[in-house]
Design a protein that fits this description.
single chain, alpha+beta, Enolase-like, domain 1, 9 strands, 23% helix, 33% strand, globular
């Protein structure tokens, strides 16, 4: 059997702490890009001190080199700061830059688990209660809490990370084995999760004919039932799916943020095939 890998993307996000500063970086390599985005923020407030990015390979209209992202200085590196990233869309590289800095902020949010004291929480119980409140019915796990689930701080234990706080690796790949069908594969593996998805689709029409979703590692029992969503993608056109549609199908109170992210990464990679 001949295997033709016609498109792939690899993304890595890491978060580290040094003294009173926390650093997040995202490295991306795909068919058209090789780039890194970085930001540093105050460890207590998550206010961004510096942000920059470095581009080694990009579409022809994107300048290569190292650039400071002045627009992000003084902005929040937390949940509310994600909306601020829209100010970057006026740039030629704005869409990719927004994506990569969003990965950095997502990393900071996840890394907060190991900085709860610096962030002003009295103890693990207060931190767990905070997230239970803001995530109520926010995803499948928080909508269908199981008595077998442990609190987040227990799941993430031991809470003793001192320098390397969070790591996330994501990949998406399109493979053609011959015949009329193509296959898209996506994976997210990080400090707390592992999610895989495979999608079979008609290479000519883009119509999805089969889909499998697997959660190998996740914080709640309900997370492992997300394969129920696989049938929602069958019959859809992979080439025409939008992020908004994916959120509606796979996200919100009955779905998973991270599953949505894996699928939207596949859609982003599909643009290059």
């Amino acid at each position: 059997m001949v295997m033709d890998v016609i498109g792939q993307s690899n993304v890595c996000c890491t978060v580290k702490a040094e003294g009173k500063t926390v650093y997040a970086q995202c490295v991306l390599m795909d068919n058209q890009w090789e780039a890194e985005a970085r930001l540093s923020a105050d460890i207590e407030t998550f206010i961004i001190d510096e942000a920059d990015w470095e581009v080694h390979k990009a579409p022809s209209n994107i300048p290569l080199g190292c650039y400071s992202i002045e627009e992000m200085r003084g902005k929040s590196g937390y949940i509310e700061g994600k909306k601020e990233l829209n100010i970057l869309l006026d740039r030629k590289e704005g869409e990719m830059l927004k994506y990569m800095l969003n990965q950095c902020i997502n990393g900071l949010i996840q890394a907060e688990t190991y900085l709860y004291k610096q962030r002003g929480f009295a103890d693990e119980e207060e931190y767990d209660a905070y997230w239970d409140k803001i995530e109520k019915n926010g995803c499948r796990m928080y909508t269908h809490k199981s008595t077998e689930d442990v609190e987040w701080s227990q799941y993430a234990a031991p809470l003793t990370r001192c320098h390397n706080l969070f790591n996330r690796f994501k990949s998406s790949k399109f493979i053609y084995y011959g015949g009329k069908y193509m296959f898209a594969y996506g994976n997210l593996t990080d400090s707390f999760h592992r999610i895989d998805i495979s999608i079979e689709f008609n290479g000519a029409t883009g119509i999805i004919t089969d889909c499998e979703i697997e959660f190998s590692r996740a914080p709640g029992q309900a997370c492992f039932t997300n394969n129920i969503h696989r049938k929602k993608l069958i019959g859809r056109n992979l080439k025409e799916l939008t992020k908004k549609e994916v959120i509606h199908l796979l996200g919100k109170s009955e779905g998973c943020y991270h599953l949505v992210e894996v699928v939207t990464d596949i859609l982003r990679t599909a643009k290059y095939i």
